[in-house]
């Protein structure tokens, strides 16, 4: 019976004789217990969180795992915004600090951390601070310093032998022996960089991901080929670790089409995960995981064989605090999410490797506030606070009860030691805080003005599916409240996981002629991250001001300003529908390509700041609300704007003419209106309103049907359509609430 059951372990269905034969084949003594090698299956992936260290708040990609030395475990290096580099390890469940080194002046933030040295043995730590690169040994001695001539802060860095590759906001540069070798200027803002050796190339190939959603291959100072992906990639990683390939079948299939191709994984700012095969001549598409659950932007990615099945699993960190693991148990072309955990703040760095255990890989995560934690496959005992603490070498062998009891005892002892150390550290910090408070009270009894600096991690992102903006604000301490003030009209939308209390204030136009919207978000408990969703109204140009107030004494605030453009709900696209009736606006005059490019950037979002070397620039935009399009073609002395919406043409015309008047530039204007475009736009409006009208009708019917349901036990007399409405009552209520503002 056991043999015929496909999901039952095979060894339970063996006879005694078969068991003896199998043990003999494996070199086991007769009569000795034999258990198959433990493999963590898809349903067994339960990762335990362990808090390792607390540092100052950190930037992106400022954590690295040093290569193993005499011991198989690896040490962790992390750089913070105070300019300190710290290296630590985990031994017998306790943190052992190797060194903590201050680089440069205190407060000079580390923007990137990378490992360098000879290929295959990178033991040197390189830190980027502004435009300066410093190197320290694995024991903490500074041995290298390079003051570059760059004008942009270094955001990405790769080091090998005597070569250093760096990127700023727009410029990619390579240094050799401390001197500039070559550079390249990207056409749009660079989000991330990765470097690898490709077959057929003497020089290392560089992959740049840019804000315009392109991956670009750079060889020396030349852009060779590019590939459009679903979003701007904020995270790139090669699948080259020892665990194997992420999806061997798909890789083998594409390798025949792309000789010498390497597997590149990317994560975008709209939450999409994807695979790409790359060689020195082309890109080839792989699998794509869409962001169905509308999770946050991806900040970091890594690979590790967490399930011990011979295939690398994909580890993802997001800016909303989610840590996710995608495995390939179902299909090599269909990654499935097998683990998800939220840490409550944005993930800034993520690595995978052996840190406290020798058998299983661990996920090491650094959050915005400087918390360093691990997720391990081992299941340790919990301490008094309920937090699991990892112990070296505890990947369980489940055959010896005495060994299990001994491991359990060690875990408890280590948990008590670490808990005791944490309590002592908290007591010392409390004493220091009380001493500083006493000193401040003794200084003066009068009210004095103070200036308290605190760092704010901010972002604003257009969500095309919702035609709305998401403003994310995060600080290192707890938030008290934020105040939102806008001089353009907008709608504030609900956020499901937002625990703040929202208070909207009526604005008196007679007393305040600038403010259109005024709202306060009061945060509860110890929240240090908040997200605000809003929908703008196109046509007006203005600013959204956000005052961030932390929960601290004395009270202080910081002002953030987010510009809103007239065509704010448009996004840049690269494919437009054919045979769309277009209206045309054309300007000619004595102006440069840079002038007209800056004018368009004031009217439309996602316009790159640089024009590059091209003589003619063409850009396409589509409205996320009505799906109307805008096509711009600009060159020296001429700009043409085409759109199926007359309103969009009028908004662009207003911006360009205003800026030309301010700069005293004379323009010649011509407008060609296509009457068919009016009917086309009205049809788009109808397509937008029809589902909303039908939803409103279902909501009205649901209110009446709910009363009938309360009074009647048998509802078989109702029409099937009404019965379906009752069955989907919850979904209809939720959809109606989300669409009510439209």
Strand order of the largest sheet: 38-40-41-42-39-43
Radius of gyration: 30 Å
Oligomer: single chain
Distance between the termini: 60 Å
Number of helices: 8
Structural class: alpha+beta
Q: How many β-strands, per DSSP?
A: 43
State the low-pLDDT regions, or none. Answer: 1-14, 26-43, 241-245, 248-252, 379-398
Roughly what percent helix? 10-25%
| Main sheet summary | 6 strands, antiparallel
> How large a portion of the residues is in β-strands, by DSSP E?
35-45%
**Shape summary:** globular
Q: Give the overall pLDDT as a whole number.
A: 83
Write a short abstract of this structure:
By secondary structure, the protein is of the alpha+beta class. It has eight helices and 43 strands. Strand 24 (322-331) and strand 25 form a beta hairpin.
Description:
The protein is of the alpha+beta class. The protein has eight helices and 43 strands. The strands form ten sheets. It has a six-stranded antiparallel β-sheet with strand order 38-40-41-42-39-43, covered by helices on one side. A hairpin with a 5-residue loop joins β8 and β9 (142-147). α6 crosses α8. The longest helix is centred in the middle third of the chain and has 43 residues, at 401-443. It starts with 15 loop residues before the first helix and ends with a helix. The model is unreliable at 1-14, 26-43, 241-245, 248-252 and 379-398 (pLDDT under 50).
């Amino acid at each position: 019976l056991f043999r015929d059951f496909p999901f039952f372990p095979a060894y339970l269905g063996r006879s005694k004789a078969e068991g003896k034969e199998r043990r003999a084949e494996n070199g086991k003594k007769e009569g000795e217990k034999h258990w198959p090698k433990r493999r963590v299956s898809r349903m067994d992936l339960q990762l335990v969180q362990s808090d390792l260290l607390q540092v100052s708040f950190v930037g992106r990609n400022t954590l690295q795992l040093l290569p193993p030395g005499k011991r198989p475990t690896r040490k962790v290096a992390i750089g913070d915004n105070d300019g300190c580099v710290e290296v630590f390890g985990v031994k017998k469940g306790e943190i052992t600090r190797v060194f903590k080194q201050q680089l440069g002046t205190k407060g000079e933030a580390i923007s990137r951390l990378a490992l360098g040295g000879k290929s295959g043995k990178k033991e040197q730590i390189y830190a980027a601070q502004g435009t300066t690169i410093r190197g320290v040994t694995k024991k903490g001695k500074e041995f290298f310093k390079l003051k570059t001539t760059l004008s942009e802060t270094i955001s990405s860095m790769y080091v090998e032998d005597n070569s250093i590759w760096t990127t700023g906001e727009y410029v990619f540069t390579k240094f050799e022996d401390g001197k500039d070798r070559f550079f390249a200027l990207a056409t749009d803002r660079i989000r991330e960089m990765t470097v690898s050796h490709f077959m057929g190339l003497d020089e290392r190939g560089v992959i740049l991901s840019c804000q315009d959603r392109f991956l670009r291959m750079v060889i020396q100072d030349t852009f060779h080929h590019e590939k459009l992906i679903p979003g701007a990639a904020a995270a790139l990683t090669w699948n080259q670790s020892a665990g194997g390939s992420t999806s061997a079948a798909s890789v083998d299939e594409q390798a025949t089409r792309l000789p010498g191709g390497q597997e590149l994984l990317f994560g975008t700012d709209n939450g999409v995960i994807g695979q790409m095969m790359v060689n020195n001549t082309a890109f080839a598409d792989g699998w794509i995981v869409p962001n169905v659950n509308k999770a946050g932007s991806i900040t970091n990615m890594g690979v590790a064989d967490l399930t011990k099945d011979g295939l690398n699993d994909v580890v993802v960190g997001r800016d909303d605090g989610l840590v996710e693991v995608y495995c390939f148990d179902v299909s090599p072309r269909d990654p499935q999410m097998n683990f998800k955990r939220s840490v409550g703040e944005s993930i800034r760095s993520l690595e995978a490797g052996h840190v406290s255990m020798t058998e299983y890989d661990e996920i090491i995560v650094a959050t915005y506030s400087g918390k360093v934690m691990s997720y391990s496959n081992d299941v340790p005992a919990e301490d008094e606070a309920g937090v699991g603490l990892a112990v070296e070498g505890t990947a369980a062998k489940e055959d010896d009860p005495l060994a299990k009891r001994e491991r359990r005892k060690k875990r408890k002892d280590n948990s008590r030691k670490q808990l005791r150390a944490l309590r002592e550290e908290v007591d010392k910090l409390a004493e220091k805080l009380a001493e500083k408070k006493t000193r401040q009270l003794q200084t003066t009894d009068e009210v004095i003005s103070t200036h308290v600096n605190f760092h704010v991690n901010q972002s604003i992102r257009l969500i095309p599916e919702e035609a709305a903006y998401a403003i994310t604000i995060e600080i290192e301490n707890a938030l008290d409240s934020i105040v939102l003030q806008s001089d353009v009209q907008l709608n504030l939308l609900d956020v499901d996981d937002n625990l703040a209390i929202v208070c909207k204030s009526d604005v008196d136009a007679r007393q305040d002629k600038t403010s259109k919207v005024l709202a306060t978000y009061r945060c509860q408990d110890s929240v240090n991250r908040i997200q605000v969703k809003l929908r703008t109204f196109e046509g007006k140009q203005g600013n959204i001001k956000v005052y961030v107030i932390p929960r601290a004494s004395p009270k202080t605030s910081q002002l953030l300003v987010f510009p809103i453009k007239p065509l704010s709900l448009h996004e840049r696209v690269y494919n437009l529908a054919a045979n769309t009736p277009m209206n045309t606006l054309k300007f000619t005059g004595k102006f440069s390509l840079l002038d007209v490019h800056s004018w368009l950037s004031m009217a439309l979002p996602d316009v790159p700041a640089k024009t590059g070397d091209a003589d003619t620039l063409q850009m396409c935009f589509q409205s996320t609300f009505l799906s109307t399009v805008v096509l711009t073609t600009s060159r020296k002395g001429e700009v043409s704007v085409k759109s199926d919406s007359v309103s969009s043409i009028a908004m662009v015309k207003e911006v360009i003419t205003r800026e030309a008047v301010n700069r005293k530039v004379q323009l010649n204007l011509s407008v060609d209106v296509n009457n068919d475009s009016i009917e086309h736009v009205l049809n788009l409006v109808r397509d937008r309103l029809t589902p909303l009208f039908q939803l409103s009708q279902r909501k009205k019917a649901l209110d009446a049907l709910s009363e009938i349901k309360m009074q009647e036990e048998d509802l078989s007399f109702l029409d099937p359509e009404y019965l379906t409405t009752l069955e989907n009552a919850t979904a209809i209520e939720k959809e109606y609430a989300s669409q009510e503002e439209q």
